[in-house]
């Protein structure tokens, strides 16, 4: 070690106390989580009546929600150019918290203008999310595919939302059938052996279809309604069924979601866009007003600059004898009748005038 250098840190042996501290910190984190949930319950209880009063007011303002969504940071990355006309018809966004005991469960409702909506049979699209916690393994939001009823030749997802919903529904019906006395083990064996090759081909086709679509650009925003995440095996009540035997299936199917990070987008809508809608709208309106004002001043400055430049150009033209501006400008008329007056006197007289 060279002179003046810092001594090497002394190695500290880890005894029982640090491990006890780590354990206590883990327990404390659980307490923090419980406290945050209680705060959220209180917040929902106090703000829900306010949102119920706000919702009809925002729906009366033309373009309110399209403006809010456009103003939300990074939200535009989820919207493709072909989605834009449909987004322009959004008239309402609503968040419902249906479970008082678990405030992290919520429903997102997006409503569309009845007359201008050319894409959906339903005026409102609803997607529900449940908060699930597998202790020590994973916690987060899960969902189920939504049956989006597209109008004829107006499917922005190119048939993907329907495909995902129908496959999920068939699997769900099969599970419910097993629960009605068919014999759980026997039913599973039959389902697995019946068409293993077909399922493999189907999975390969599904994966290939996703890869081909992504090569052509990002999927439509509305494929988000087919997002399930780790919730493929969750029933209508949001409870995980056959957790042990379906664990591998969950891992396999999780990678086939049409919409990446659908839980993050759901949280953004519920926890950011919805509560801060007025702020985003007013910021956009204010920014546009400031922009128009700046443009007006800039235009005036530009016009004045153009006039000054024009006068300078005309004077230069007179000096160089180019163009006919001298005949058009009264202030450029030469009063001297002396044909022998030199050019310097002429310039001085024009300057005086």
TrEMBL record:
Pfam families: NAP. Transmembrane segments: none annotated. Residues 240-255, 300-321, 334-343 have a biased composition (Acidic residues). Residues 169-179, 196-210 have a biased composition (Basic and acidic residues). InterPro entries: NAP-like_sf, NAP_family. One of its GO terms (biological process) is nucleosome assembly. Residues 169-210, 235-263, 285-353 are annotated as: Disordered. GO terms for cellular component: nucleus. Belongs to the nucleosome assembly protein (NAP) family. PANTHER family: TESTIS-SPECIFIC Y-ENCODED PROTEIN. This is Nap family protein. It comes from Arthrobotrys conoides.
